[in-house]
Structure formats: C-alpha cells, structure tokens
Amino acid sequence: MSKKSDLSQGSLIRSLFTLAWPIIMANILQTAYQLIDTFWLGRLGANAVAAVSISFPILFLVLSLGAGLTLAGTVIVSQYKGAKDQRMIDFSASQTIFVIFFVSAMLAVLGYLVASPLMNLVGAGPETLDDSVKYFQVSSFGFVFLFMFFTFQSLMRGIGNVLMPMYIVLGTVLLNLVLDPLFIFGFGSIEGYGVAGAAVASVITQGISAAVGIAILFRGRKGIKIRLSDMKPDFQWIKRMFELGIPASLEQSSRSAVLTVLVMLVTSFGSEVVAAYGIGARILSLVIVPAQGLAMATTTMVGQNIGASKIKRAESIGNLSVKVAFFGLTGIGLLMFVFAENLTAFFVPNDPQVIKEGAIFIRIMAPSFGLLGVNQVLNGLFNGARFTQASLLISIFSLWIVRFPAAFILSQKTALAYEGIWWSFPISNGIAAVIAFIYYKTGHWKVRTIRHRGDWIQPGVG
C-alpha cells in the first residue's frame, strides 16, 4: 500500500485537504452540468428554466435511490483498504459494479415510463409540462452512464485516489459546455431541441465518462482491478451492501423528495417564483459542494482508520472536519449573501422579478451554510463508521418533521407567502446540525463500531 493513499497515518489536516479538494472540484464540475444548462436555457426564457426546475428534483430523487449503493461501495472498499486486503477491494468493486448496473438500468426504464405522470403530479403548468417531460425522458437514458461513473468515483475515493475522477469530469464538462448550445439552439444541419437538447448533451458526455471510468477499472492500474469472474452474484455480499446502502439511499432520497414536494408548494405561486426557486436551488447546490466534499473525504478517512482499528484517530478526523466545515461554509455564506443579486442575474439577466426573488431566497439561506456543513460532515463520519442509519434518522427528522411542515405552515398560513418556503431551509439546517453534533459527542457511534467491526472483516475471496 502506498503511503500516499494510506489515510490511517500522517497529518490529519494534510490528509483531509489532499483528499477533499479534488472531490470538491469534481463535485463543482458535476454541478456545472446543471449550471451550464440553466445558463443557456435562461436565454430561452423563464419558462424554459422553470421546466427544468420542476423536473430536476424528481431526477435527483431517482438518482439518489442508487447513490446510496455507490456510497456503500466507498465505505466497504475504504475499510478493506485500511485492513490492507487488496483481494477484497477488487472483489467488492466488481460486485458493486454488477449491482449498480442492474439497478440503474431498471431506474432508466422506470424513469422514462413515468415521466409524464410525475410532471403532472408535481404541478407542471401547461406552459412547462411538455418541456419538463421531454427533459426528464431524455435524461433517463443517461442513468446507466451516470451511475457507472458515480460508482467509479466512489470506488476510487474509497482507496484515496481522487485525482483521476476529477480529470475525467473536467474533460466532460468542457465538452458539455460546447454541446449544450449546439443541441439547445442547433447549428447548421444540426437541429436544435430546445429544453430537451440540454439533456441530450449531458447524456453524451455521461456516456463518455462512464466508458473511460469502467475501462480504467478493468485495466487495474489505479489501485482497483475489476474482473468479470468476480461479478458473479455473491448474495451474501450483496445483502451486506444493501444493508449498508439502503439507509444511505433513503437518506439521500428523503432530501430529494422534500425538494420535490416543496416544488409542489412553489408551483402554486407561478412560473416566476418557480424559476427563482430553481436558480436559488442550483446556486445552493454549488455552494454546499465544499461541505459534501469534506463529508466524502471524512467518510473515506474514517473508513480506512476503522479498517486499521484506529478509532481514536477516526474521532480526531470528525473533530477537525466539523471545525473546517463550520467556519469555511459560514464564510462562503457571507459572500453569497453579499453577491446574491449578481449571481441570480447571471442566469436570468432580463427578468427583474426573478432576479429579486432568487436573491431573497439565497440571502435567507446563506447564514445557515456553516450549520449545513456541520451536518454534512457528521453524516460523512457516521457513514464511514458503517452507521448509515444515524444519517437517515437525522435527515428524516430535520426534513420531514421540520422543513416541510415549516414550509407549508409559513407559506400557507402566514403573510410570508412563498418566502416561508425559503425560511424552512435555515430552520431545518440548524436543527439537524444540533442533533447530529449532540449524537456525535455521546460517542455511541464509537462503541457500536468497536462492537461490530468483526462482522464485516473476512478473508480475501478466491
């Protein structure tokens, strides 16, 4: 094992940032897909942005059903990396690829078939229904590609190899920057597809990134080698993966489901408010990327250290990550508060009302970004300790017991109207951070980790 990828020794702060910054950059670049789409679609008008804004939360809901399984791959591989069991790293990676491929294929078929009823369910109006359905259907074709690359990223992250996925994402995003206007507006003999063209461009680039990632795994020169012989279903291993991955999937699904039902509240206030919500949500997704990157880095570092039986070092990683996330995200939140109108105007330059409402949304949320960061990194620690149930329970409470009821009551029963929806975000972020931090300090996750560590360690396969 190279010392460079062995996160169970050396400086914590250096390891955290060395691992986190490529993850953060890759996540920023991934988010750039949606931001690029929004930028070009904004040139078609507010209805085009609203159409994608309506379909995006449901797309995220479908994707998150499989995302938890890719997280399971990260955790399992990272712990075998800490235990220095290369055979189980390769076997686990192969099994993960096999499972995710079939899950994503089923979701692709399902997504295409239910696109129209789903868009009607969330309240797409006649001016946005057709475009939102087409965007969702085309995007469904890319689920397999998207999941395969996400799995590649997760497996590489588990062994501490985070640079290669970042380079691949950079190349595909640059390609998407060219393909987006080409397929949205058309050029020469190439027909423009409007809103659906943005999805076409994304599917093409996702296919390229997936092919490159899978080829790297089969070649086996970057720390993991997958084999067709290892993809024969091992139902005991798959059961363990689902036990770990299903709570993570439900946790991520609960987040996207809340965004979906919030869209149902937002749509009752008209297309301009929907567009403002879509722009604010996308900017928010970009801003919280550092927190998600730190959380993913924390998951990998904690997983490797638990695999190496270094529980105290794993706790030190948690303490460091909380401080970095809180102070770093609070600073970013202050910047977003100051430049809210400029950022909103960048996406819809000719619609003063959307600019105004989008800026209000950002300014209401911005002060709570540090608390959001604390919740994210502690969820990352719990996941790395194979305690994905903790992240799930905290998310369900903060999102379904706090955020949605607060959004409904404040928007429907008070003079705040749709701004009540905006206020539900900082309220739920604060409560989630407090609950996660209190639970973290009880130390129950450490006791549980020590007690159950032997449940997953087994000799190499084959």
UniProtKB/TrEMBL annotation:
Domain of life (superkingdom): Bacteria
Transmembrane segments: 12-36, 48-77, 97-115, 135-155, 167-187, 193-218, 257-277, 283-303, 324-348, 360-378, 390-409, 421-440
Entry membrane topology: Multi-pass membrane protein
The name this protein goes by in its record: Multidrug-efflux transporter
GO molecular function: antiporter activity; xenobiotic transmembrane transporter activity
Subcellular location: Cell membrane
A cellular-component GO term for this protein: plasma membrane
Keyword vocabulary terms for this entry: Antiport, Cell membrane, Ion transport, Membrane, Transmembrane, Transmembrane helix, Transport
A GO biological process held by the record: monoatomic ion transport
Keyword Magnesium appears in the UniProt entry: no
Record-linked InterPro entries: MATE_fam, MATE_MdtK, MdtK-like
Keyword Ligase recorded: no
Pfam entry (one): MatE
